[in-house]
Amino acid sequence: MRALPLPPGRLADQVRFLLEADRLKSVLRRTLISDGSRHENSAEHSWHVVLFALLLSEHARESVDVSRVIAMLVLHDLVEIDAGDTYVYDEAGLATKATRERAAADRLFGLLPPDQRKVLRGLWEEFDARESEDSRFANAVDRLAAVLLNYLGRGEVWRTHRVSAPQVRARNSAVGEAAPALGEVVRVVVDDSVARGWLAEDRACP
Amino acid sequence: MRALPLPPGRLADQVRFLLEADRLKSVLRRTLISDGSRHENSAEHSWHVVLFALLLSEHARESVDVSRVIAMLVLHDLVEIDAGDTYVYDEAGLATKATRERAAADRLFGLLPPDQRKVLRGLWEEFDARESEDSRFANAVDRLAAVLLNYLGRGEVWRTHRVSAPQVRARNSAVGEAAPALGEVVRVVVDDSVARGWLAEDRACP
């Protein structure tokens, strides 16, 4: 990253972090955008799920603080700049994900002034731990967005990666736990995908 | 857009709006992403400026409500789905921009349940009017992000479109009005771009 001609200090550190964050636009996910023309990147995905949170918070089981949910979603994938996107159905990748992402968080949030480093890293860890209501709802919309895009793409991504309906249901049971009405959307979409032959009930026995 | 197998009603309308919004990922801006490999799209740009607002609100001249600033920035480019991105230095495009964007807002926000339509459209109009402190700060980070990316790209986009330093200064004077320290970043970056020959003081006399 080119050094900016700014005097060293708090604002220069903030700007450097923001320009480093630009690289999230080059991290590709498995999902396709809605017209199927290309893979989605993690930056535009992050924008999309922030919009989900802005509109759908009324469906959370418990009342949530939308500002905190949105801040988590803005930050939730930043570590992928170093750690890459780990596909949710990739068991080998998932085994090393935590270690890779912790190292990424050390470096990336480490660019920030200490007070902001603490707050932002705390929000990222809270999202990842899925223990607070805010983080459970943030995770729910993150997952819902992927299910909906895969449905719009007629399940092509699921088939390419040999993902089965029981895997999608298991992965997304957390959606209904955090937001029952959104869990119902997942149920309807998964069942319809099975009915249309876009998603198999059992990948092991094709 | 494929119809989802959801019962008609509030949640179905919200989901339909969110899937329609996905198309912002295909609207290209003049700016390049930081590695220069491709044009930036308006969805990932929107994510980036939300991150700017999350980190930089302490630099606003007047105290701002970060949640409202962020909501404006999430929504600020949605109308480009129908109206396209209008380059800030394209005078012919700017002449018809307001009309095109109002029609787009009618259609897009019109997909939402009435209460959310009112709130979201109100935020978009507030951003566009640049009269409130929140909207002035939101516009400031929107502009700052473009200047920084153009600097990282060694001014290639400015040169391609024959944009001069006085034009960039005029367009971005609003940054310093809303946030003096961020205006100083613009000043330093523009002056350095001129010094390096990436931006001309006068395009009319090359």
Please outline what is shown here:
Chain A contains ten helices and two strands, in the order H-E-E-H-H-H-H-H-H-H-H-H. With 206 residues, the first copy, chain A, is mainly α.
Description of the structure:
The first copy, chain A, is mainly alpha-helical and 206 residues long. A two-stranded antiparallel sheet of chain A has the order 1-2. Chain A has 10 helices and 2 strands. In chain A, strand 1 and strand 2 form a beta hairpin. Chains A and B meet through helix 1, helix 2, helix 3, helix 7 and helix 10 of A and helix 1, helix 2, helix 3, helix 7 and helix 11 of B.
Keywords:
homodimer; 206 residues; mainly alpha; two-stranded antiparallel ribbon; 10 helices; 2 strands; globular
Radius of gyration of chain A: 18 Å
Uncertain spans of chain A: none
Specify which chain pair forms the largest interface: A-B, 54 and 54 residues
- Secondary-structure element order of chain A, as H and E? HEEHHHHHHHHH
Strand content of chain A: under 5%
**Helix/strand/pairing category of chain A:** mainly alpha
Question: Overall pLDDT of chain A, averaged?
Answer: 95
The share of residues in helices of chain A is: 55-70%
In spatial order, strands of the major sheet of chain A run 1-2
Identify the quaternary structure here: homodimer
| Tally of separate helices of chain A | 10
Q: Give a count of the beta strands of chain A, DSSP E runs of length 2 or more.
A: 2
Q: How can the largest sheet of chain A be summarized? A: 2 strands, antiparallel
Coarse morphology of chain A: globular
How far the N terminus sits from the C terminus of chain A, by CA atoms, comes to: 48 Å
